[in-house]
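Hi W., the sodium ion complex you wanted:
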Amino acid sequence: QTVLRSSDTHPDGYPTVEAVKYFGELVKERTDGRYEVEVFHSAQLGQEADTIEQTQFGVIDLNRISIGAFGTQVPEATVTQLPFIFRSVDHYHNVLDGPIGDEILAAFDSVDVVALAFYDGGSRSFYNSSKPIETPDDMAGMKFRVMQSDIFVDMVGALGGNATPMPYGEVYSGIQTGVIDGAENNYPSYDTAGHAEVAKYYSLDEHLMVPEVLVMSKIVWDGLAPEDQEIFRQAAKDSVAKQRELWAAQEVESKKKVEELGAKINTVDKAPFIEAMKPVYEKYVTDPKLKDLVERIQATEG
Amino acid sequence: MEYWILFGTFTALMLIGTPISFCLGIASFATITYLGRPAIVVFQQLNSGVSVFTLMAIPFFIFAGDLMMRGGIAARIIAFAGAIVGHIRGGLGQVNVLASTLFGGISGSAVAEAAAVGGIMIPQMKERGYGADYAVNVTSMAALIALLLPPSHNMIIYSISGGGRISIADLFTAGVIPGILLAISLMVTAYIVARRRGYPTEPFPGFAKAFQYFIISIPGLMLIAIIFGGVRSGIFTATESSCIAVIYALLVTIFVYRTMDFSNFVHCVTGAVRTTAMVLFIIGSAASFGWLMAYLRVAPILTDGVAQLTNDPLMVLMLINILLLLLGTFMDMGPLIIITTPIFLPMVTEFGVDPVHFGVIMILNLGIGLNTPPLGPVQFVAAAVGKISIWQAMRSVWPFYGAGLLVLGLVTYIPALSLWLPGLFRGH
Amino acid sequence: MESDVKNGLLAASRVFGGVAMVALWLAGLGLVAMTAIVAYQVFMRYVMNSSPPWTEASSIMIMSWFIFLGAAVGVREKFHMGFDVLLYVLPPSGKPVLRTISDLAIFAFGFGMVWFGGELALRGWTVRVPVLGVPQTLTYLPIVVSGLLICLFVLERMALRLAGEPVDDVETDQIVSEA
Ligand code: NA
Ligand code: NA
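Structure:
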């Protein structure tokens, strides 16, 4: 009987953590208890960039990770980090559940991990302490904290805002004291980090829908019998529905909580935001293969 | 077996005098090798343990402290403190505590504070008939105020060890009332002991002279206002304030006091580099050690153990306090925060203790450990300045330990002492 | 003959002293550079309302360089904090033995820093540091350099000890502590 270690940066009870646990139960059941999965939640084994390397070394077996943490290492996956690449949650699901999703999963082979399934990470929108954002002009001169990634920095710049580097732990007090005006994230993070207390305006531009991905170490994968590999792959696919259900429930709950805290949520006409992203696409989608991939994603229904 | 290798290697190497950072690193290296898993992860964690933006506050505050000490900012603050409380019985003891409180508001290092305040106060106290042991004990305990009053880089270490999600601004604010409480209880203790020993008072120098000392020390005291004001008004973050402290200390010592020349500056830089490298190398190797503890599930195992003993939060806190005090007698603060936070924090939050409150308990508790042999760096510095042995200091330290433990008890069991002020700033 | 070896050792030791000095100065330069970068970051954000994106990543990288360089210097200057309870109960003749065991352990770790740090650095060649765009090799190189210096400094000390030099009696006069 083998215990496989899986990392997650989210706390216990979070949809991704629970989904990997569920995946573990399926694996245990279908391998008659030969394999078990233990989830190390709350970044116990390190931040995402570290745990990716650890998965590659084979020191940990499984990893639930945001595609964003792979940066530009996997070109096909970079495409999913482009702002407004997905029009809606349905579009996002149609793309990832279809052949394009399988193509992106397969691309992870080049970085020594086996990608098993996509989970939902929700859509990210901007929030700030001073006003609702309706057009890109509203963002002019405003300071937003984004993750340290070139695409996200360029995205804020293209919208006229200032991408301000800041450790996540300082964002709350940074917004409160006015060092920055706001940040961007999905409902659950906006809620659990307490940022809704200090940044009341949540503007639903839904600029990013970065998928979460469950990956397995290539070294560990290669040591599995082919029929076990099939069991793992299928169990991962089967855990997706569960994760989406948990995620949707979490979003509803978080939205309710931030509204109770007094968050003012406004919808946004996305067209001018999408228009502003042209230079970002020009900068990051240069390879003809990626151009083709972007076109196929855009042509997918939903 | 792997648990024995991890903790056994660490303990054995520590006993033979291997530096703590290497004890942590080698224990991790040995354990991962024993487990037959790729040892590369130990060195990855060594690096990512120190590659954290908020850690930058440590070199900056240490650097700023060196500049303030060598540039005479500390000496001027002490002269001012002497003018206002010197006339109370055992006056210089009070001066010592007040100076530590003021200096503690600009420095986060208890050792720097013991060196700065003690270096000036202890010789004076001895000269005027105070016992060297009294001077040393007042200095070493009052130095702990620096840990509680903002800025405090140990609170930053705590925040990072707790996963980086505990607000540093909240921790800084939470330490203020406990810091003032410690100052008061030490002033009272210093007064009582001084009365019983019949120590003299200092004549009040007159308002004119006191005012003059105040004016001279303004540039130094302004740093408190600049750090607090700058963070609160959103000019810079708590981490960045440490860099501003360096710039400000440089400006004051170069242009106002004119005490900083190039060779002084080089001394400050190399001194700060040595201290920082020593501290942060421990943080890096402790990250490797912490990674192995997580991998081996040490925390859940211990939590289950404690949960079987008791599930009363008050008892849990008491057990943890006793354990930390014991550990603190033979280990230093930074590494202890780093090693024990990942174990204790999930445990106490499970029992409903606020992470910010627990941070204050931990800092004060381990601060007291800085004054207990065999490893008590603050006590060592104070005793070295006072030219007495640790054993001479130990004979009369008990009332001062008592004052510290009393405040620790209050802080542990009255959460509002820590949480009221940050709540006020957060507005709920 | 024996004294030739010893003189050679002492000469080599002076060279190592110079190496340590250079490392310390480079580290000091790093601290000053980091101060300038963070001050620049505050200035650009607050005064110019335009945050340079590279300040965070570059100051972190500089910090890890000066920490690991400084840590190597610390092995030679013996400013790393430790405490030796056993020395109080053992006869004085036990000291060189304990110190040798300790040095061997430090050497092993230094070797690990070179070996595995080297592997990390090599793997990082194709990975770019976000925002800075430089290879991740630069992130891991400080470990390799520091490990190399640590191994050299420990070998130096063990050689001097074998040659009968009083390496274990000299204590550093720097007051370094952390609290
Ligand atoms: Na302080
Ligand atoms: Na101690």
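The CA atoms of residues 63 and 269 of chain B lie 7 Å apart.

W.
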